[in-house]
Amino acid sequence: MKEVRITAIRKVQHSDLMERYENPIEHACDVREGQTWISIDGRCPEGLCDEAWKTMREFVEALARGEGNFFDGWMKNPLSAMISCNDGFRPVSFYLEVIEAEAEGKEGRK
Question: How many domains does the chain have?
Fold first, then answer.
């Protein structure tokens, strides 16, 4: 199975929606832009938010099996996906990419 890098690309906060609909909470999302995790054998990496994993799990597992080209050419890199967590108040966009493909591509250019 291939390793998959998960990178937090963007985190936004919809303060107007939070003010209007959300009950105040003490602890929100700890994810930081630029933070990365490595999924090995399609498993959830330690320290990754459980709720974020639920939204990306099927994509990570498919990429780890060598599958890709989701939605018929959606991504420029067919061995990648852009997935957002399900927090409507402070969603995080995650870039998922096979990292073995990088090494294989470099070896092929030697």
Answer: 1
